[in-house]
Amino acid sequence: MKAVGARLPRYDGLAHITGRTQYVDDVRIHGTLWTKALRSPHHHAAVRSIDTSRAEALPGVHAVVTAQDVPRNVYGHLEALGVPADEPLLAEGDVRWKGQVIAAVAAESEEIALAAVDAIDVEFEEREAVFDIRRAADPDAPTFHQWGPVYPHFGPHNHRRVRKGDVDRAFDEADVIVEGVYRPQAIEHVPMETQVALAVPEASGRLTIYSCTQAMYFSMGVVAAHLQWPLSKLKFVGGTVGGGFGGKVDTATETICALLAIKSRRPVKWRFTREEEFLVSSTRAPWHIELRDAVTTDGWILGRRTLTLHDAGAYARFSPYGVTKHAFHHTGAYTIPNVRFDGFVVFTNRVPTTAMRGFGVTSVSLAVELHLSRVADVLGMDPLELRLKNANRVGDTTGNRVVLHDPSTVAVTLAAAEAAGHEVGEEYRSMTSDRRTGDLLPEHLVEQQAPEGAHMATFDPTLTNGGGH
Amino acid sequence: MRLTVNGVEHDVLSPPLATLLHVLREELAITSPKAGCLQGGCGACTVLVDGEPRRACLTPIAAIDGASVSTVEGLGAPDDLSVVQAAFHAHYAAQCGFCTSGFMMAAQALVDSDGQASREEVIAALSGHICRCTGYVKIIDAVTAAVNGDVRTAETDIDMGPRDEETITLVPGSPA
Question: A8: number of CA atoms within 13 Å, CB side?
């Protein structure tokens, strides 16, 4: 236990402060070509024709790729987990968000690459776009995705569901019903190092790919699937990331670099400009979260109804996983015995969204905590006392039927109260996480309480579907 | 055109309007200055030109013909850290490391100027630099220590003493 509490030198610290750390953009390979992408100028349009012949004829252009150059164009990040794919690497047929890549070129300089992109002729037929998740689910909203307005693959359902207890009864018996709508907005990760990759054809026939990915084996799998190559033909070099924050799990540049390197037989680098990073790299999802709590005047939460809409942007990427995180965290660190959760992944004509720092958890936690303060306000109760009363205790069961053995809500809330100089009543100050008894075990919490030593309450798959991600 | 970089003279072959960042990275393979935004907004490309911190991404090479340029590569090696490097190491001021070179060169200019600066002056001197890992408090701690000659050596740091409470004290007005 020498390391706990000690100041350990960072294993990569000396390299960082002596300029010796080699990020992808610092790798020097003679003859490396620059990449630029032709991106959709429209939020939603049909692509009527693509003509790359003028670009290909430009001196200094070594390769141009479009959808027809990709052995397997449509592949999903979660496909290895059984989640069907919807996103093409290079657009085919339709473009569904402003910035979607239609073609990419590799040329001897950045200037030539830009000129080549300008020389690609594309005919578009612009279509109506939708940007608001509430609007996207309306019956008269424009449709653009082959699966309709929502991601449909959650087992037998078209959305993620949690059902526990008797919610209707909880709302019938409530003294007050408190409603709130919370809408955390999109956030761009803005890593200091923009998305970048370098693909180098080796004499052995393999490709070496220098990558800024946060998820090396994920990215290897994605590249191999698109290329229809065995993993043994790919060598990934990475692990040095100039900031990611979740935005570098998407395999943004590696595959297109690989295609261009194979076609040109030259090393190919693609580094996003700062403008591209802001405009077209994936963001944290915007959400629409509605919470309705059935509460008693003395501060017990009998039940909760939750609707969350996760803005996937134009393609699913990791969004089904994000909404599943909502399903697990929509009661926060509090015990609510009767819950009904419906979470939808909604498609809009926005840049596809992805993970960022606590994927899905931060957004629903923001909503839960704001809502608890709203409940306290409505009841005229101290907001921390409300939290302490409903906080998870040993033996409580979450909305997903996980039995809690070591919950920390009470201790953390009391520590936060003390740190903030927020006084709570004596009966709250003496609270612990111990198993509920007496006044802390009112009738509505008896049934949810697991027997001593139980690990998981009976799991009923008809109530909580477990399919999909 | 000629440049002296970290004490070594170079004939520069890039065209006159090429940026200093391009010359350093692409012609001379000196890669500690980073291409963070290429529009002067982030500070990751900062180097010293005749002792002054400059945005290498906005500096045409023709404007500094004959100048002396300093980058992190010229500060010190792992077994012979400069004051600024030792301070960054001791205070854990590098996280992902991508902005670090720029911060360090701005700090070096401050150390070279008059050897003393208040915490507020350090914050002002670093205000043009972005750390998206948001490690500002540690960076400000490191630079304040470096400027005021209050740097533990790397050896002391590796000694793993108990954590200094002051290093995690938030300072009013800090951008963190």
Answer: 8
